Amino acid sequence: MRRAGLAGLGLVAGLWLLAVVALAGLWSGRGAPEPGVEATSSGRLLRPPSQAAQKTFRALLTLPGQPLEGPGESGQEPPPPPVPADPPRGVAEPPVRGGIFWSRALEAQVPPGFSAEEAASWLRAAREARVVSLERGGCGRSSNRLARLSDGSRACVRYGINAEQIQGEALSYHLAGLLGIQERLPPLALARVEARGGQWAPVRDELRGSPWADGAVVSLARWVDNLTDVVAPAPWRAEAGAAATSGPRRLQPLSAGELRGLSQAQLVELVQWSDLIVFDYVTANFDRLVSNLFSLQWDPRVMQRATSNLHRAPNGGLVFLDNEAGLVHGYRLLAMWDKYNEPLLRSVCVFREATAQRVRELHRARNAAAQLLHLYRTREPLAGVLGFLSEQQAQLLQDRVDFVHKHILHCKAKAASL
Ligand SMILES: *[C@@H]1O[C@H](CO)[C@@H](O)[C@H](O)[C@H]1NC(C)=O
């Protein structure tokens, strides 16, 4: 258990460091922002911030001229209270094996997401279905709509303010497929808005009143009922909070047995978080945990609030929503956000073995972008319309895969030396 414990220590210590770096870096040189502001690019504002504070954040996060977004995608319910701890785990079953991999027993307890079959069957149906109605609200930005489809299902239709958002959303979805973590993302298809086309005929009048350009490519993401908010896992939450409210002097090294002290439910959630952090690092998605870390500068308790674009399904599994900041937008803003994304990745030294394996394969094959393109073209009929990553973005993707691989090797070496 020593190794597992130290891996946990590394994880938590890394987040301390991150919180401290975030605070030091962000508090310097800027006026104290309005308290109580929580904003993300999906626009969830717990309290309306002053225009100035909002502008500061938005200016950093988005393109000029981009309107502010509407209410969050599915914050229908407040975050649930912290999950009560299960009885302590028996000593017999360490949560980590081989120094850096989640145990198979833990992985087996991760609630299932969208299976490949379920996703494929919804996508087939959604591509053929007619859009019966379009409603405002519930799907993020004010230009997005919640669509009811003729097959009875619902989908969030996202209209990109610029093409890179829809492209980023679609490519991130297929990259998740390449990494073997796609079950955590709602199935996603591209669609072309055509007021005269059969698919959109029932909502022709709504389309006339919408900001959507005829012929625009939008994304259709399967709607998921009864999602609830997700707060960052306990170790991160506690330490980030301590760092923000009382300064680094309150930070105390955690004992090596820290991971063992976590409940089964917390460990199962951390398994999913480890995939999320790898995914967000590779795609350079700044609009999730990273945007919360950013908000630490004006909201010391932000780590105890809901994480942007991350929700919990009724079965307890995490759902990675709204990935439009990934790959394209994120790569354009690397300089700004990697100071969060990179330490966040470095703070994680326990992985799902299958994910580490995929990363290793993509590293060895040196063709992550080519594999992504192949998958995208195979699975998405409209892949050709939005275009693909530029050569430079393709290189960045490979570099980031390589970086994750190197980091995993580093964790492995560290664990072996204990
Ligand atoms: C969502 O919640 C409502 C009300 O609690 C319930 O009736 C419904 O069955 C739930 N749907 C799913 C898919 O869990």
Automatic annotation (TrEMBL):
InterPro entries found in the cross-reference section: FJX1/FJ (IPR024868)
Q: What's the protein here called?
A: Four-jointed box kinase 1
Q: Where is the composition biased (Pro residues)?
A: 77-87
- What's any GO biological process attached to this entry? cell-cell signaling
GO CC terms for this protein?
extracellular space
| First and last residue of the signal peptide | 1-31
Keyword Signal assigned to the entry: answer is yes
Tell me the superkingdom of the source.
Answer: Eukaryota
Query: Region (Disordered): which ranges?
Result: 63-92
Q: Where is the composition biased (Low complexity)?
A: 64-76
Q: Which keywords are on file for this protein?
A: Signal
